[in-house]
Amino acid sequence: MKRLLACAAAxxxxxxxxxxxxxxxxxxxxxxxxxxxxxxEDQAIEFLLNARSDADHGKSAPKKTDIKDxxxxxxxxxxxxxxxxxVCGLVLANGTFMFxxxxxxxxxxxxxxDGAGLVTLFGFADGHFPSRTTLGSFGxxxxxxxxxSTNVPPPSANSTITFTITDGCNNGVQIEYKFYDVSDNxxxxxxxxxxxxxxLNASYRHDLLCSTGAKICYGARSGTFYWGVDEDGTKxxxxxxxxxxxxxxxxxxxxx
Length: 256
Known about the structure:
This protein has one helix at about 40-50; strands at about 10-15, 25, 35, 50-55, 70-80, 90-95, 95-100, 105-110, 120-125, 130-135, 140, 145, 160-170, 175-180, 185-190, 195, 205-210, 215-220, 225-230, 235-245, 250-255. Helix content is about 5%, strand content about 45%. The chain has 2 domains: about 10-65 and about 160-255, Immunoglobulin-like (Sandwich); about 70-145, Immunoglobulin-like (Sandwich). The strands form 3 sheets. Strands 2, 3, 4, 14, 15, 16, 18, 19 and 20 form a 9-stranded mixed sheet that branches. Strands 1, 5, 8, 11, 12, 13, 17 and 21 form an 8-stranded mixed sheet that branches. The protein has about 260 residues and is mostly beta strands.
């Protein structure tokens, strides 16, 4: 995909959760300026996970380790409820556990795969329904717990959507990526930082709290390769965006 259209079908594999008719295109507005989508406290949590400053670009390694070759590894991410608040609770993965309390809502847990090469991840917290997910690799996985209440919540101006980025580009360079709210001119994790991948074939799931109805796009780069709207949000794409509607999701494997 060297300098081809970022979302060319030959270079971008979408799977699983987003139907083709739900994916949205985007044409950037020249000179658009994006503000931080996360507050300072939430940005600090992301820096404990897989975010870093834009001043630290282009990390590379002689060979990016293939996560499929690892029976022991790390799962990390945030645990929040459906209002977006960080949750202090118990995270359990194949018999290994920790509490997401320092700071509230962040976890990083070392564990092993089971006999089938899978990891079963649980999330528990007082006042919330539990969560259970079976994963095929290590990497980032944000957990969203629903508040347990018999009261019907009032309509919310916000929704939670999910992007899952899988590193399928074996060029020895980490993929750096961001998420852009092109309706409200916001960017995750911030205007001056980005997310990054560490392992080949690892997946990084992000649950984003956004304004209902806004259009959210991903942008990524690894060396001379780019996907979606590019890491800096300046490229057009055919199918790298979804609307912010509760439960909407997009999974993509970035190949080169």
